[in-house]
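Practice problem 4.
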C-alpha cells in the first residue's frame, strides 16, 4: 500500500498548472461510446478513475490510444452491452455508461456503481428517468437489465434533485430518443455544460446546458469529435486550501474563474487575497486565517460538496469557530476523526454539521484517507502541520488528483510517496 509522507510547516511559494477535470472527463469518455466514430479528448487527467473508464470502453469494443493527456477513442466497432461488476464497482461514474449503452445499442446490462463511500448515493433518479424514456429495467441477481422495446422516447423529466449523474445519463439517452427531451431542475455544474459542448461538436442538438432547463432533440446523426476537457475546479480549490493552510503564495495556471466564484469568496472571507487574471490565479495567505461563521454545501453554483473537506482542513487552524453544513451527501465527514488525530478540534452535530474550533497549530500524525476529497484534505492539513504526517490509502487520492506529490512539491512542500 502506498503512503504519502509529508513534513509540514514549510511556507509555500510556487506555481502549478491545473489538471483537467475528472468529473468532466468521465462522462465525456462515456459519451464517446454513445456517438460512435473517433473522438480525440485533450486535457484528460492521468487518474485511476480515467483508467477505469478506458477499461470499460475497451470492454465494449472501443479502441483506445493514450498520448500524454490526450485520449483517442475509436468506438466505431463497439458492440458490448454488458459491463461486468468488477468494472462497475471501480467508481460511481460507471453508471453514466448505462445512458451511453442505451443510446447507442438500445440496451445495457450493468450492476450498481461503486465509488467513494460518502453516503447512500442511490441511482433511483437515473433509473426512474430512463424508465420514463421508455427503457424497461429489470433487476436479475444484482444485474440491471435495461432494454427498449420501441426505442427511446423524448419526454419531460423533472428531477426531484438536480443530480449531476442523472442529468448526464438523461442527456446521453436522449441523444437517440424520438423527439425532444426536456429536463427541468437539471444540474447546472460546469461539467454538464462541458459534456454538452462535446456533444454539440459531435452533431447533437442540445440547448440550456449549464442552466436548469435542458432540451435535447434526439435522432441527430452523430460522429466523433475533438474536445479539450475543462480545468478541474475542485483541484483548483485544493490549491487555494494549500496556500491557506500552509501559508505563502501559490500561483495556479489554467483556472476558469467563473467556475469557482463561491470558493474564491469563501477563501477571501477567511482572509486570503486571491486574484485571477488571464487564467492565472494567485492566492496569498494571511498571517492566520479567520473563521468562516457559516458555510453550507450546495449544488452548483453554490459551494461544492467536493471542496468541503478541503476547506475544513484549512479552517481547523483559523482564528475562531467555523460552522460547516454538508447538505449534499450524508456521510461526508469521514476525514473529521483523522483531522482530530492531527490536533484539530471539530465536533459533528446531527451528522451533517461540523463545528470547527480553530486551534493554533496541527501536528503530524499517522492518518488514513477514507475517500478522495477527504484524503486531499488530510494532505492539505499536513502541509500546515508541525512535523511528519503519514497518509495511508493514497489510492483514494489517486482517483481524482494527478500525482499529488509532484504538484505539492512544485508549490514548495516537502512530500514523498513511499
Ligand atoms: C457528482 C460528482 C461528485 C460530486 C457530486 C455532487 C462526478 C463523477 N461526481 O456525483 O464528485 O460530489 O456530483 O456535486 O461527477 N441522489 C439520489 N438519487 C439519484 C442520484 C443522486 O438520491 O439517483 C442524491 C445523492 O445520494 C446525493 C445527491 O443526490 O445525495 C447528489 O448526487 P449527484 O448530484 O447525483 O452526484 P453524483 O453524480 O454521484
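Answer key:
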Amino acid at each position: 500500500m502506498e503512503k504519502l509522507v509529508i513534513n509540514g510547516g514549510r511556507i509555500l511559494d510556487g506555481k502549478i498548472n491545473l489538471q483537467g477535470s475528472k468529473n468532466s472527463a468521465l462522462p465525456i469518455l462515456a459519451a464517446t461510446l454513445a456517438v460512435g466514430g473517433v473522438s480525440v479528448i485533450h486535457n484528460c487527467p492521468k487518474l485511476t478513475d480515467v483508467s477505469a473508464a478506458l477499461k470499460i470502453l475497451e470492454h465494449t469494443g472501443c479502441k483506445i490510444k493514450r498520448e500524454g493527456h490526450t485520449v483517442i477513442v475509436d468506438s466505431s466497432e463497439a458492440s458490448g452491452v454488458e459491463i461486468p461488476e468488477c468494472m462497475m464497482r471501480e467508481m460511481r461514474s460507471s453508471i453514466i455508461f448505462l445512458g451511453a449503452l442505451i443510446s447507442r445499442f438500445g440496451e445495457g446490462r450493468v450492476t450498481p456503481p461503486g465509488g467513494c463511500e460518502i453516503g447512500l448515493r442511490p441511482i433511483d433518479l437515473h433509473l426512474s428517468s430512463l424508465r420514463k424514456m421508455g427503457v424497461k429495467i429489470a433487476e436479475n441477481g444484482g444485474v440491471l437489465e435495461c432494454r427498449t422495446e420501441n426505442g427511446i422516447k423524448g419526454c419531460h423529466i423533472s428531477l426531484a434533485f438536480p443530480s449531476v449523474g442523472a442529468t448526464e445519463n438523461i442527456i446521453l439517452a436522449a441523444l437517440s430518443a424520438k423527439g425532444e427531451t426536456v429536463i427541468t431542475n437539471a444540474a447546472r455544474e460546469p461539467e454538464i455544460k462541458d459534456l454538452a459542448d462535446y456533444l454539440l461538436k459531435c452533431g447533437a442538438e442540445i440547448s440550456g446546458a449549464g442552466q436548469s432547463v435542458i432540451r435535447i432533440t434526439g435522432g441527430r446523426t452523430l460522429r466523433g469529435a475533438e474536445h479539450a476537457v475543462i480545468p478541474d475546479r475542485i483541484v483548483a480549490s485544493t490549491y487555494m486550501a494549500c496556500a491557506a493552510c500552509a501559508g505563502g503564495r501559490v500561483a495556479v495556471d489554467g483556472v476558469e474563474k467563473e467556475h469557482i466564484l463561491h470558493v474564491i469568496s469563501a477563501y477571501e472571507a477567511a482572509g486570503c487575497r486571491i486574484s485571477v487574471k488571464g487564467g492565472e490565479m494567485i492566492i496569498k495567505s494571511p498571517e492566520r486565517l479567520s473563521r468562516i461563521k457559516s458555510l453550507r454545501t450546495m449544488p452548483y453554483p453554490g459551494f461544492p460538496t467536493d471542496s468541503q473537506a478541503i476547506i475544513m482542513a484549512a479552517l481547523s487552524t483559523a482564528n475562531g469557530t467555523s460552522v460547516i453544513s454538508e447538505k449534499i451527501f450524508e456521510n461526508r465527514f469521514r476525514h473529521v476523526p483523522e483531522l482530530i488525530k492531527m490536533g484539530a478540534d471539530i465536533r459533528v452535530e446531527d451528522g451533517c454539521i461540523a463545528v470547527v474550533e480553530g486551534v493554533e497549530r496541527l501536528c503530524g500524525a499517522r492518518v488514513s484517507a477514507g475517500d478522495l476529497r477527504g484524503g486531499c484534505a488530510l494532505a492539505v492539513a499536513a502541509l500546515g502541520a508541525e512535523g511528519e504526517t503519514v497518509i495511508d490509502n493514497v489510492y483514494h487520492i489517486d482517483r481524482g488528483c494527478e500525482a499529488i506529490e509532484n504538484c505539492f512539491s512544485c508549490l514548495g512542500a516537502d512530500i514523498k510517496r513511499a
